[in-house]
Every structure is written in C-alpha cells, then in structure tokens.
Write a structure and sequence with these properties.
2 copies of one chain form a homodimer. Chain A is mainly α and 186 residues long. The first copy, chain A, has one domain: AhpD-like, CATH 1.20.1290.10. In chain A, 65% of the residues lie in helices and 0% in strands. In chain A, α4 runs antiparallel to α5 and α6 crosses α8. The radius of gyration of chain A is 16 Å and the shape is globular. The first copy, chain A, starts with 11 loop residues before the first helix and ends in a 10-residue tail after the last helix. The interface between A and B is large, with 48 and 48 residues.
Amino acid sequence: MPHINLPEGYPGIRSLFMYNPETALPLNNLVQTLLHDKNTSTLTPGERELIATYTSGLNECKYCANTHGAIAKHQLNGNENVVKDVLAKNIATADVSDKMKALLQIASKVQRGGKNVTEADIENARKEGATDKEIHDTVLIAAAFCMFNRYVDGLATWAPDDASVYDAIGKQRATEGYMTKPFIVK
Amino acid sequence: MPHINLPEGYPGIRSLFMYNPETALPLNNLVQTLLHDKNTSTLTPGERELIATYTSGLNECKYCANTHGAIAKHQLNGNENVVKDVLAKNIATADVSDKMKALLQIASKVQRGGKNVTEADIENARKEGATDKEIHDTVLIAAAFCMFNRYVDGLATWAPDDASVYDAIGKQRATEGYMTKPFIVK
C-alpha cells in the first residue's frame, strides 16, 4: 500500500503525476526530451530507453524497469531478448553495440554515485566511438532514473504484476511519447 | 577536469545547463516549483532547501551541498548554524522542528534507495504533524537531488573552493529563484 493517499487505478509514477501535477509537468518534459525526442540525441530512443531500463533494474525498481523495458522493446522493433539481457544485467552478451556496452558501464557507475565514473570509463566509451554529448546523455539518463526510481519506491506506489499492463504502457509511450494522458489500468 | 568539454567559467550544474539547454529548462522548472515557489508546498523554501542540502551532503556532492546550503541560509534569515549542522549531519541537535527532523530522516532513507523508507518512518513524520503532501515533497526533493548530485559529479564538473562564490549564488537564487540567468564566476 502506498505511504500516502494516492489516486487509485494508476500504477507507479502515474499515481504521483495525478497527485501532484505541478511537478508532473517538468518531470514529463524532462523524459520527453531525454528519452523520446529524436532531434535531442544521437543515441536512438531505443538505446536511451535501454539505459533507463538498466538503471531502473540496478535500483530494483519493478515499475520503472518493467515499464521502460517495454517501451525499449517497442522502440527496438520488438527485440525482446535485448531487454531481457539488460534486465538480467547480462551486458557483456547483450545484443547491443560495443559503444552501448561502454555507455551502460558508465550508467552502472552513476547508479552507485557520480564520483564512481572514472577517466578509464570515459576513455573506453570514446574508444568505442561515443561522443561527449552521448556520454552526457548517458550520465543524465542514469541520474534521472536514480530520481524516478526513488520517487516511485520511496512512496511505495503500486507496481502491477501483469506483464500485459507494462506492454500496453510500453506501446503507448513508444508511440505517443510522454506528454499524453496517463495510462489508466482500471 | 570535467569528463567532457564544458563551457569555462561556470561552476557545477551551471556548466551543464549551458552545455545542454534542452534539459536545463525542465530541470530548472522542477527546482523552481519544488524548492522556491511559495504556493506549491506548506514547507517553507528554507525548509525545502535544507532537505536538498542534507541529501547533497549525504551524496558528498561538494557543489550542490555548498550551493543549496548557501541558498538555505539566505532563505532562513542568515541562520548559518542550522546549515552547518545539516551539512555535518547533526540532525538530532540541529535548530529545526521535530517535524523537520522526521522528514530529514525520510530524506536520508531515500538517499540510500526508495525501498529503505519504512512505515515507521512515515508514522513518525505523521506523529510530528507532517501531512501527506509534506512527505511527498520530502521524498521528491531527496530523489531529485540524487539526480542532480549524480549529474554534477558523474561528469566531474568544477566545484569552486571559495565560500564567497557559494554565498553569492545562494543570495541570487534565494532572491530570484531558479529561472534567471546562470551565475558566472569569471
């Protein structure tokens, strides 16, 4: 049961967006530009969603990991295996580029705290072709999900068990982005 | 030295806002409503800045801890001692209400991960008079600074050593809020 009295029928962060619209707007603007818009990053929306999925998995946030895993799958033409590998933290063998492996390594350092990112992590990403902007985007996506995961779990919001719920949210967000109406389960 | 090529003369997150204006806008909108606006919370701006300061101290983020400590001081009529106690993690003896002590305890749990917040933490805050909205605001402020701290340190931005720099930023932000031009040191 959530720690505070939240609107019923909305899972995870959606219940918090309904509860406090003042912060919902900038938070959705942030993920829209960070994850969804095509002209804001040279990483694809699918790659950016995988970074969000991986960070949420490392933080053991069931709602965010399943939601962004489902969005990533829909952004990556239904590639379910790569999402499963990222959720299982099998990065070495996951079906992603060597550049993405280096960026996911940076994301895992950010998840443990910003100071854990080393010069060697950055050099490795550059060696695999990552630009400054791609390193920037990776750090901010991982940092942002350290916020979203804590917001969702710190207030003990409801995380559905039904995989089809996450798939429906994933399809909606991959198609429409983050600025449309929240997904209602009931 | 920063991990990526950032504009010179801007400390901490200000260099990142100059580097990537697309995400600077929602991030500043978020702190404006979360920390500064008077009509968005029943916690005072000074109390909300103390939660940001405490979380940043727990994350050992020099730039954010010093900046928000200075903003808190200016929001709290120059009460430097309470800021020093919060930065030194002396919450038990700090010059804050029992409600704020209970909320800072929740913030410290969020800093370690959302699932660490217990029913007992929530009950204790309620016993001291905290409302649902104040618990919500505390969790989101602590969560947001787990993002800002990681963004600032994950890219190894420049944190000035000079206390007068933080005091000047603190005075500016306490007065003008977060939507005005960045503070330039050079």
